[in-house]
Amino acid sequence: MNENLIAYLLAYLIGAVPFGLLFGLLFGGVNIKKSGSKSIGATNVLRVIKQDNPTLAKKLAILTIICDALKGILPILIGQFVFNLDISTLWAMGVLAVVGHCFSPYLMFEGGKGIATGAGVLAYFLPVELIIAVTVWFITGKVLKISSLASLFALLAMVVSSFILHYDMPHINTHAPVLIIAFVVVYKHLPNIKRLLSGAESKVI
């Protein structure tokens, strides 16, 4: 099999590992796919487990964010330093890691929202833009206390800043990977967007 195809498959399968679900089951004794927003992300881990154990909920939410971000960056680092793959292949691996998280074959092609995994990918390629996005996410989250809205503002900041700081994307000369990741994340947030527009979106306090 072609080396690149193997890299793509591994990136997708690693990205698809549902850490939030696994941590909830192993350490919280709860299936987060059946509670709260039914997402496998850190926000739902926090929301669901906080009801019985707030301290554990925070720890598992942080652990979920870290592991979901690592799913994005580790395949890329392995691809570069172990297999010496070219930059376009690494970008494709990053996109597929996000797709794997959002449409996991382990969960009948359901999954999370892609924010943390996308952040892991972009930490490698666009670290300055990621810092801007995380800053926007933190401020928006603190002020509005709505996780989905903070994530969407952070995504917008990431995309806009990438065009400002890297108008001619180094090595690949296209923003297509960033835009594909953004599209997937927005698509997975459509239910949240509908709730935001109707004023029914839950706050994280």
Q: How many domain regions?
A: 1
Structural class of the helix and strand makeup? mainly alpha
Helix run count: 10
Shape descriptor reads globular
Radius of gyration using CA atoms only: 17 Å
Unreliable stretches (pLDDT < 50, length at least 5) are: none
**SS strand fraction:** under 5%
- Order of SSEs: HHHHHHHHHH
Tally of extended strands? 0
**Helical percentage:** over 70%
Mean pLDDT comes to: 94
- Biggest sheet character: none
Kindly report how far apart the N and C termini lie: 49 Å
Subunit structure: Probably interacts with PlsX.
Membrane topology: Multi-pass membrane protein
Subcellular location: Cell membrane
Keywords: Acyltransferase, Cell membrane, Lipid biosynthesis, Lipid metabolism, Membrane, Phospholipid biosynthesis, Phospholipid metabolism, Transferase, Transmembrane, Transmembrane helix
Structure description:
This protein has one domain. Helices cover 71% and strands 0% of the residues. The chain has helices at 3-15, 19-28, 42-49, 54-81, 87-102, 115-125, 127-144, 147-165, 176-188, 190-198. Helix 1 packs antiparallel against helix 4, helix 4 (54-81) packs antiparallel against helix 5 (87-102) and helix 7 (127-144) runs antiparallel to helix 8 (147-165). The longest helix has 28 residues, at 54-81. The model has no long low-confidence stretch (mean pLDDT 94).
Concise overview:
The chain has helices at residues 3-15, 19-28, 42-49, 54-81, 87-102, 115-125, 127-144, 147-165, 176-188, 190-198.
